[in-house]
Every structure is written in C-alpha cells, then in structure tokens.
Amino acid sequence: MEQSDGAIDVELYRYPILQRADRYAMVSGKLRAGLHLPHIALTGKIVADAGWFNLDMLGSIPTIDNDIIVLRDGETLNEEETQAPTDISMNIDIDLGPRFYLTGYGVNSGLVGQLSLSMFDGEITALGALRTRGGSVEQYGQRLLLRRGTVTFQGDITNPILDIEALRTGYAVEAGVAVRGTARHPRIDLVSYPDVDQAEKLSWLLFGHGSDSSSGDLALLLSVGSSLISGEEPLYRKLGIDEVTVQQGELGSAGSILPSYTLVKGIDDASSDAEKQFLQASKALGSNITVSLQQALSDSGTVGRASYRLARGLTAELSLGTVNGLALIYRWFSKED
C-alpha cells in the first residue's frame, strides 16, 4: 500500500454515537486520527452527555471469534483478502458523565467514572474505575439496595476487579451479598449489619426476619436459599407465595417474643413438640405490609395475620382466626464481642 501521512481532527457535540435497541450514547469531545498509512492512531477524549446500556442483550445475540472465516458454497480462501489493510492503534480517555445508566440482569443503577482505553496489535486494554450511583439489584426474589459498586480495570478489559455490595434495607438486620474478586473468578459472600451467623443472614435476606433454629425449619430455610441462589425458583414462588416455613410454638403467638403460656400452665402442659408445630405461608404486599396464614399441623387451628412495618425494628401485627389479637413488636439486635 502507498505510504501517506496526515491527520483528521473531529470535534463532537452531543453526537449520538450509539443508537440501538439495547444501548444508546450521546457524546461530546475531540478525537484525532493520525495517519501514517497503513497505520492509523486514534487519540482523544470524550464525555458522555447521556447514555444507557441494557445488560440483558449481552447473551441474546450469538457471535463468533474474529479469527473465524465463514465461506459460502463455491467460495475459496483468498490470503490477500484476509490480511488487514491497515494497522489501527487507539488511546482514548472516556468520562461517563453524570447521566449514564445501566439496566438488565436485575440491575438498575447510574454509572459514573473514567476509563482510558488503549488498543495495540488488536488487543484492547483499559485503566480506570467505574462506580454505581445509587440504584438497586433484583436478586433472590428481593430488591437489594446497591450500597457499594466498583469495577476497576487494570489492563485486561474482560477481567476487571469487582467490589460490589447490595443489601435488603429497612430491617433490624440488613442482610445482602458482597461480590469481590475478578470477573472471571468472583467470590460471593453473605453479609449483614449487624453481623449475624450465616443462617440468620440468609433468613433476613430472603424473608426479612430471623430464622427460628429451634423450630425445625432451618433445613427448609437452607434448602430454599440454595435453590434461589442457584437460580432454581421453588414451586411456591411460582404460585406467588414469598415464604413457606414450618415453625414451632403457640399458634398465633407474637413472633415468639411474648410468652405463649405461664409457668403454671407450662408445668401441667403435656403436649409434645410435634403438637406445637404449624405451617406458615406468607406474601409481601409491598415494602411494609406482609400477610400470612398459619395452619396447625396437629389440629384444625388456623390464624390469618397482617403485619405492618411502622419503622425499622417496629412492627404492628393483627391476628384473626383461632387466635385474635393486636400486637406491637419492637426488635433490636446487637453484635456480641
């Protein structure tokens, strides 16, 4: 190819560089293409005036590697055509600005930060960090608030370093998940504030309350948690029910906080543990209201309950059925040294 030198300067102002169903970006900035054919060097800096990227589209369109050549019937491989006519290098600084948004895969958040993209010999690298700005993640059947989300690039653009934490907020124990490590080898841990054991974290994450380890429903909790985290939705979830547990205690008792019987009655009471077990199914009707149905396993006792979260740790509960009552319950948790 004939040698040629030159340069092309481009100034962009709110230019819609991407306009697709799954992504959009409008940018401003300056770019320069330095020509020393067959080499082209792209440099410059651009800022996103607005942008949106839908992660759901990443896995919907199949692609092939760029080293694969598809030949139709009757075509032959031409070595000259397979050689790239130009050699392109790139060094561009990108600022996402204040109005760039990310959706899909349960994520709904703003994204801010700066990246320096480079390309040499066909390999793209990146330096910089992107951070989430507010937003939430829909995971495990719950809406988790993004408390922290940082993606740091230190070279390989396909393997950034992750530091993400999302919590189910507004409860006495705010539980969630933390993702750390690299994109290729992420490590996912349960977290909570204040810190409680793993079963409690899972219960607060999935159901919004602590587990009753003495009731025999701990195995059910772990089974439900494992199926949700592995991506398999339990049958009752498909039916619109949020939680199914087997609990032990007095039917209709106020969250096992108030005493279910007096000391004198406890001495004369000969009922077994099995006779004090009941099945509970519950459904959240919003962020603060939960309705549930309790059915005794050893008799015909049935209690319907409506719970309203007045504030963090403070709940009002109305019970109707075999047991009628109104309770005001306050819970608090402290970390033991």
What does this structure look like?
Helix content is 11%, strand content 52%. The protein is mostly beta strands and 337 residues long. Strands 1, 2, 3, 4, 5, 6, 7, 8, 9, 10 and 11 form an 11-stranded mixed beta sheet that branches. A 6-stranded antiparallel beta sheet has the order 12-13-14-15-16-17, with no helix packed on it. The chain is elongated.
Q: How far apart are the first and last residues' alpha carbons, in Å?
A: 74 Å
Task: List the helices and strands in order.
Answer: EEEHEEEEEEEEHHHEHEEEEE
The pLDDT mean sits at 76
> How would you describe the oligomerization state of the chains in this entry?
single chain
Main sheet: strands, sense, barrel:
11 strands, mixed
Overall shape: elongated
Query: What is Rg?
Result: 29 Å
Note poorly predicted spans: 256-270
Q: Strand pairing plus helix content: what structural class? A: mainly beta
Strands, count:
17
Relative strand content: over 45%
Percent helix, as a range, is: 10-25%
Number of helices: 5
